[in-house]
């Protein structure tokens, strides 16, 4: 039986199925696909890999890290910083640099809760959580920092107060 790969999509993900892997390898060798990162290919032979990854970042994250939570400044901005940093919370702390133009920064923390927002197969930190995450101290500044400037959180809190919204007390387990 012939294996069919949908080449209508800009991003194609590898598979543990050896038949699909052979088809993808052949298409790459024949110049029909370009390898973006391990087990990630593109049918776009014109645009830069950096631009392709930025356009398809959420799909790539869902494929690679479905249990991760988009957090910290990325939960508010929903895009990589100017330096290409994107922040996620997961069960481990690490940096992933194999995606062209993107640095995935993982912070160790709790999984998504019912207060977090489901989004395309992942979760985004809910409003209260992302505000607390952005009040953490960061050793880096500017676009490399995982937190937004304090003024952004202050303005958000002021907006909540002025519109009559409630600020809920959250137990964050600090002693």
Write out key terms for the chains shown.
single chain, 2 domains, 6-stranded mixed β-sheet, 6 helices, 9 strands, 30% helix
Please provide a written account of the structure.
This protein is an alpha+beta fold and 175 residues long. The chain folds into two domains: 11-46, no CATH class; 65-162, no CATH class. It has six helices and nine strands, in the order βαββααβαβββββαα. The strands form two sheets. Strands 6-7-5-4-9-8 form a six-stranded mixed sheet. 26% of the residues are buried. The mean pLDDT is 87.
Short overview:
This protein is an alpha+beta fold and 175 residues long. The protein has 6 helices and 9 strands; from the N terminus they run βαββααβαβββββαα. The protein has helices at residues 18-29, 49-55, 57-64, 72-77, 127-133, 150-162, and strands spanning 11-13, 34-37, 40-42, 69-70, 85-90, 94-99, 102-108, 117-119, 122-124.
Average of pLDDT: 87
Low-confidence stretches: none
Computed Rg: 19 Å
Into which percentage range does the β-strand content fall?
15-25%
| Biggest sheet details | 6 strands, mixed
Structural class: alpha+beta
Total strands: 9
Give the fraction of residues assigned to helices. 25-40%
Q: Total domains, how many?
A: 2
Helix segment tally: 6
Order of H and E elements? EHEEHHEHEEEEEHH
Distance between the termini: 61 Å
**Biggest β-sheet: strands ordered side by side in the sheet:** 6-7-5-4-9-8
Describe how the helices and strands are arranged.
Blueprint: E1 11-13, H1 18-29, E2 34-37, E3 40-42, H2 49-55, H3 57-64, E4 69-70, H4 72-77, E5 85-90, E6 94-99, E7 102-108, E8 117-119, E9 122-124, H5 127-133, H6 150-162
Parallel strand pairs: 4-9, 5-7
Antiparallel strand pairs: 1-3, 2-3, 4-5, 6-7, 8-9
């Amino acid at each position: 039986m012939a294996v069919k790969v949908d080449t209508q999509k800009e991003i194609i993900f590898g598979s543990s199925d050896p038949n699909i892997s052979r088809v993808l390898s052949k298409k790459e060798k024949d110049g029909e696909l370009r390898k973006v990162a391990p087990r990630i290919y593109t049918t776009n032979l014109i645009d830069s890999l950096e631009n392709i990854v930025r356009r398809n970042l959420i799909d790539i994250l869902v494929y690679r890290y479905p249990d991760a939570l988009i957090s910290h400044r990325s939960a508010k901005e929903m895009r990589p910083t100017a330096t290409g940093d994107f922040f996620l919370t997961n069960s481990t702390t690490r940096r992933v640099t194999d995606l062209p133009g993107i640095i995935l920064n993982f912070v160790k923390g709790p999984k998504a809760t019912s207060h977090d927002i489901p989004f395309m197969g992942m979760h985004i930190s809910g409003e209260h959580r992302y505000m607390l995450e952005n009040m953490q101290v960061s050793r880096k500044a500017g676009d490399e920092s995982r937190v937004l400037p304090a003024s952004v959180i202050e303005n958000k809190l002021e907006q909540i107060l002025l519109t009559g919204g409630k600020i809920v007390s959250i137990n964050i387990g600090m002693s």
